[in-house]
């Protein structure tokens, strides 16, 4: 199996090393793992692509490239230049921090998996929730490191992928903020919503007196509705959420037909 991996934390992020180990486990002795990741951190860029400017792509080692672009750019760079032929699977992560609930909409980790799905490739995004029980651990990615390959293998072997669909499925996996031994299992979960947890801005002055704004997030340990992603993670489970790029609110189309009939 040929696997492409990327992330939004950057080519030197420790989570990418964790993902490389997971990918090598899945690819097997005769497989190939290709890395095309952002040269610098690209957190929060979503599905952005560098449509109006070129990107530099540097080969750092065999099958390892750094791109001066976004995670979605990295997928495009791999398919269009870095890799000979297409990968069998695209993995994105392992993100330092959760990509559950509203974070999903901002995440470059998700953006890379989404771009892969738009390119008709099977894709999985993986993120490690952080909290009091793992933030100061020697290995904050332990839950993902220990359980990641098993989850990916189960998805590949048994999950639906909707091959040939216009907007094919991809999967969003979040590991709970716990040591690996305390992970309770895996739960399929819908994307949730943290109430009163939104991004905001905070002004600050530079030493030269210029005014800048920092974007800051809200509390990450507010649970979502029972059974949805962040709630499942905070209960100690790995969440697996099937996703599509189709943003249509299909449940409201009939209401809209009545409005304009």
Automatic annotation (TrEMBL):
Cofactor comment text: Binds 1 divalent metal cation per subunit.
EC identifiers of the protein: 3.1.3.5
Keyword Nucleotide-binding: yes
Binding residues annotated for a divalent metal cation, in chain numbering: 8-9, 43, 95
Pfam families to which the protein is assigned, alphabetical: SurE
Catalysis: reaction(s): a ribonucleoside 5'-phosphate + H2O = a ribonucleoside + phosphate
Claim: Metal-binding is one of the keywords in the record: yes
Domain (Survival protein SurE-like phosphatase/nucleotidase) ranges: 3-195
Enzyme class: hydrolase
Alphabetical list of InterPro entries matching this protein: SurE, SurE-like_Pase/nucleotidase, SurE-like_sf
Main location: cytoplasm
Cofactor(s) needed by this chain: a divalent metal cation
Keywords for this protein: Cytoplasm, Hydrolase, Metal-binding, Nucleotide-binding
Subcellular location: Cytoplasm
Family: Belongs to the SurE nucleotidase family.
HAMAP family to which the protein is assigned, alphabetical: SurE (MF_00060)
Functional description taken from the UniProt entry: Nucleotidase that shows phosphatase activity on nucleoside 5'-monophosphates.
Name of this protein: 5'-nucleotidase SurE
Lineage: Bacteria, Pseudomonadati, Pseudomonadota, Alphaproteobacteria, Rhodobacterales
């Amino acid at each position: 199996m040929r696997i492409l991996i990327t992330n939004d934390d950057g080519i030197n992020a420790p989570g990418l090393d964790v993902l490389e180990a997971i990918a090598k486990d899945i690819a097997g002795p005769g497989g190939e793992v290709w890395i095309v990741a952002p040269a610098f951190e690209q957190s929060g860029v979503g599905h952005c692509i560098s449509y109006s400017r070129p990107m530099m792509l540097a080969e750092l080692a065999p099958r390892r490239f750094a791109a001066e672009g976004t995670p979605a750019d990295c997928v495009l760079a791999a398919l269009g230049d870095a890799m000979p032929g297409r990968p069998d699977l695209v993995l994105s992560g392992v993100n330092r921090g959760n990509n559950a609930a509203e974070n999903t909409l901002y995440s470059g980790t998700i953006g890379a998996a989404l771009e892969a799905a738009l390119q008709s490739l099977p894709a999985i995004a993986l993120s490690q929730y952080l909290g009091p029980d793992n933030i100061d651990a020697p290995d904050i990615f332990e839950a993902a490191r220990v359980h990641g390959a098993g989850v990916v293998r189960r998805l590949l072997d048994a999950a639906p992928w909707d091959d040939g669909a216009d907007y094919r499925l991809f999967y969003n996996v979040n590991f709970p903020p716990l040591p690996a031994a305390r992970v309770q299992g895996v739960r399929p979960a819908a994307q949730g919503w943290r109430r009163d947890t939104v991004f905001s801005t905070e002004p600050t002055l530079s030493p030269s007196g210029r005014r800048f704004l920092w974007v800051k997030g809200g509390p990450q340990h507010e649970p979502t509705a029972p059974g949805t992603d962040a709630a499942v993670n905070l209960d100690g489970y790995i969440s697996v959420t099937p996703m599509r790029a189709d943003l249509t609110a299909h449940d409201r189309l009939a209401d809209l037909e009545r409005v304009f009939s």
